[in-house]
Amino acid sequence: FGATDDARISLEANPEDVTPESLAAWRKLGIGTLSLGVQSFDDESLRFLGRRHDGAAAQRAVAFALGAGFRTVSVDLIFGLPGRDESVLTDDLARIVSLGADHVSCYQLTIHAGTVFGRRAEAGTLREADESTQAARFRTTHAALATETRPRTSRLPSAPPARLTGPSSSAVDEARRESGKRLKRIRWPGS
Fold first, then answer.
1. What does the buried/exposed string (b/e) look like for 93-109 if buried means 16 or more CB atoms within 10 Å of the residue's CB?
2. Averaged over 84-102, what is the pLDDT?
């Protein structure tokens, strides 16, 4: 790419594109942050979204990426799918946390004109979850991720400490000072 040695290069990929060969090639290109468009680990939700991967493939992709030496592995998650129980979201969040992703980006499902979902909405076969359900899912997501911290095990020798944000940062900073260990915090947009 002709980038400087300290350049931060990110790549977004879908779980079905993750193979040992692709991970090695991306690392060789200097990719430091890999963002995976997981969206959910729930097979029914993935079918609803028209995704090509299933939950097991998404989990494998995250695990492989975490072991491949990237500075940061990020997972994208969609919440607020119509007709889906909140337990699907809490299971997705628990899976992300248990896998140890460095970063989580959470997005509310929105329907836009001119898209497949937009055409379904115009035909009356799809509606966004109501506002109170969306708000509840947002609060669930925030509660599950806002305080998630644990010792960081660096996958690259030069990896800096994760940036800490959000209301609990002072407590995490205090714990970092006391323990002398690197801690990480899962961040999501708006924190």
1. bebbeebebbbbebeeb
2. 92
Q: In whole angstroms, what is the distance from residue 77 CA to residue 54 CA?
A: 14
Helix (H) or strand (E) holding 142: helix 131-145
d(CA 120, CA 1): 42
Going from the C-alpha of 103 to that of each of 72, 111, 148, 185, the distances in angstroms are 7, 25, 11, 8
pLDDT in tens, 131-187: 898 899 989 988 888 876 554 444 443 333 333 333 333 333 443 343 333 333 444
Q: 34 by DSSP, 3-state: which?
A: strand
Taking Cα atoms as reference points, which of 182, 127, 115 lies closest to residue 153? 182
pLDDT at 92: 95
